[in-house]
Amino acid sequence: MFHTWMRYFTPNSVHHRLGLVCLGVGMQHGALPTVGPRTIDHHVAVVISAGTGWFRHRGGDAVEITAPTLLWLTPDAEHHYAPHPGSGWDESFVDFTGPAAATYTELGYIEPDRPIVPLSDTTGPRAVIARIARAARPGNPLLEVESSAAVHELLVALRRARADTTGDGDRVLDALARDAFLPLTIAEHATRHGMTLAELRAAVRRSADCSPKDYLLGIRLGRAKELLAATDLPVAAVARRVGYEDPAYFSRLFTRRVGAAPVRFREQQYRTVPGGWSTDHLDPRRITRQPADHPGP
User: Fold this and answer.
1) Which of 9, 60, 5 is nearest to 32 (CA)?
2) How far, in Å, are 64, 92, 186 from residue 104 at the CA level?
3) What is the full DSSP assignment across 170-197?
4) Which residue, 29, 94, 111, 128, has fewest beta-carbon neighbours within 10 Å?
5) pLDDT for 42-58, tens place per residue?
6) Alpha-carbon distance 64 to 51, whole Å?
7) Measured distance CA(107)–CA(208) in Å, rounded
């Protein structure tokens, strides 16, 4: 016995220019029928939240599946899978396509060569899938745009839920963020956190899909933008605040990565606020609405 609910959509050419479009959504549980062997021309994220089964990829050997697990079904890759009849499983899925899928693959959010991805928890991904299901109500004029936005969010939720991104990886990223503005080399960061350079690189790649250098650079440039937009500090002082002793090097780096020189960025983004404003890294949920006679930026 099994129970199935699913809806399929046909977005038009304009919707495809959103980068990703949702082609379908479904929720099933029980001793579901075997899927395949087959190939498809789009992507499907299959989230197994309970139960066990098996999965065969590109004609290889069957691999045992135990929830919570993500199955990636990718274009032109033959797949064949099913829950065990005795246990069944709880499954949610989203079909999607679009040119942005290639970028998400390059960033490591979609892994064609790793079709079975253990998850630590399925709460986040299932919440996004449930929103797509609610958007699929009959007559919803915003369906295609709502579901497209949700596919982007789903990929982030799945990336966050991966079992190999929790624990030590998160602690390493937190420690790097805390020390991001110190004038340290990557090797010195590794030593500071009791790791070899290779261990640090592997941990950051596993958790953030980038190198330690790029991870720190993103934090530094973000802070530099805040200081340029919110203060009158000279560019040299901003550079020192974010860990660069050489302001000329900082300016070249900023210009290359941002596409505008620090001075030009300040001209475009500077905000004046009566009484000044804070550039501390506060939780935005703590920011309350200001009185009408003290408007925000």
Assistant:
1) 5
2) 27, 20, 26
3) HHHHHHHHHTTTS---HHHHHHHTT--H
4) 111
5) 999 999 999 999 999 99
6) 11
7) 9
